[in-house]
Specification:
about 425 residues, mainly alpha, two-stranded antiparallel ribbon, two-stranded antiparallel sheet, 24 helices, about 60% helix
């Protein structure tokens, strides 16, 4: 089996099953790539992961509450947030269109927004749908600039003509669309003025535009002067040459290498496919530079967990409620809980996931999974096949061969270097 195909399936999705890896190997690299980035037919697996009914939005930032009301409200929010997070993890595991699901996860880390500040799982779900169903990056950016969750997270709802707030403007330039070094502080200040006037409407559950709070004056941004507003600002940013190059680099950082910069020839080829994210991703995955990154990218905790569950046939929704809660708690301890990135920069990468503290949590989480796997017999060789590991190093193999307890053998395989690094 070509490990190039294994690399493709592990990076483009959350982790192949042994059956998927065998089928892809028989089809060949180019056919496997096409099947990943242009999946045929409906995603039957994903449709079985029913979106939870979160009920009415209990966001109450505009009225005073008693202490008892606050406690009750916070408890309800926590339950709804847990339901939402469990749903997405379940969908990641069962989705047959793995590259699509993985790309949605990428965008969640790119437009990083945390429910811990937004305090509305309903708004987080709306944002999730935007990231999932936007036709391309252009459409996504146009919707995200007025997305209620993102605006609440970056204080965009406080940005008014009398007191411009630059938080959202700064992140649009630095983290979302252009990248560091492509603008000046004056551009940020002027963009902040352009974004004034959007506030959160509790009755609509969305951002609404209030003309009275908007700065209608002319602004000079990136060398162009006009009466910019949120929509014309986004149009301007999307036209910059830096935009597709920046998105290409961000895709490379998560799919290719978190330690080496994207090769310039590859960046240029990816930029030509902009604004189609899947088209850009296809160019990346087809390039020799991608294959050269084998064995260098550390799995993010969610990638590791979802991949393990897929390969072991464990579905989150089929687990007892207390185990599902414990899994979310462990992911939070690992530092990567969906809908709760640590800051607007998103989650870290690389060696950040390989701390001694993370190793202890990962071992515990691997044990939770192993408790729900029925394996009649297990050897180091059959474990490698099950986890789609091409081969064990001599050191790992020696440890696995000495392990007689099948549960412990499975846990050790899940936390091995060969499994943690793609």
């Amino acid at each position: 089996m070509s490990d190039g195909i294994g690399l493709l399936l592990r990076r483009a999705g959350f982790g192949p099953t042994a059956v998927e890896l065998t089928a892809a190997g028989q089809a060949g690299y180019q056919a496997a790539l096409s099947a990943m980035v242009v999946p045929a037919g409906p995603d039957v697996g994903a449709t079985s992961a029913t979106v939870p009914d979160l009920g009415a939005d209990v966001y109450a930032g505009t009225r005073d509450l008693t202490y008892e009301e606050k406690v009750k409200l916070e408890s309800l929010r926590n339950v709804q947030t847990e339901q939402l997070t469990e749903w997405w993890l379940d969908r990641m595991v069962v989705a047959s269109h793995q590259a699509v699901e993985k790309l949605v996860f990428f965008w969640h880390g790119h437009w990083a927004t945390s429910v811990k500040k937004v305090r509305s799982p309903q708004l987080m779900l709306k944002q999730h749908r935007t990231l999932r169903y936007a036709a391309d990056f252009t459409a996504m950016a146009r919707e995200m600039v007025i997305d209620a969750a993102l605006n609440l997270y970056l204080d965009g709802h406080l940005n008014v003509k009398a007191a411009p707030n630059e938080n959202l403007a700064r992140e649009l330039f630095e983290l979302f669309i252009l990248g560091i070094g492509q603008y000046t502080e004056k551009d940020i200040k002027e963009a902040g003025r352009a974004l004034t006037g959007w506030r959160f409407s509790l009755t609509r559950g969305a951002s609404v535009f209030d003309p009275a709070l908007h700065d209608r004056g002319r602004k000079t941004i990136l060398g162009r002067t006009e009466s910019f507003n949120a929509h014309s600002l986004i149009r301007l940013l999307l036209k910059q040459d830096a935009c597709p190059r920046f998105i290409a680099a961000r895709l490379w950082h998560r799919y290719g290498s978190s330690t080496t910069p994207i090769p310039e020839p590859l960046r240029e080829k990816m930029a030509e496919a902009f604004p189609a994210p899947m088209g850009m991703l296809r160019v990346l995955l087809a390039d020799e530079a991608f294959r050269a990154t084998a064995g260098t990218l550390v799995k993010q905790p969610v990638e590791w967990l979802v991949g393990a569950m897929r390969q072991l046939g464990v579905r989150p929704s089929g687990l007892p409620a207390e185990i599902r809660t414990a899994i979310l708690r462990d992911l939070d301890s690992l530092g990567q809980l969906p809908f709760a990135p640590p800051n607007v920069g998103g989650w870290p990468a690389g060696g950040a996931w390989l701390t001694s503290a993370a190793a202890q949590v990962r071992m515990r989480l691997a044990g939770r999974i192993a408790d729900h796997v029925l394996v009649s017999s297990l050897t180091p060789e059959s474990l490698a096949h099950l986890l789609c590991v091409q081969s064990w190093t001599n050191r790992t193999y020696a440890v696995l061969r000495r392990t007689q307890d099948r549960r412990q053998l499975l846990i050790l395989g899940l936390v091995s270097p060969e499994y943690l690094v793609t």
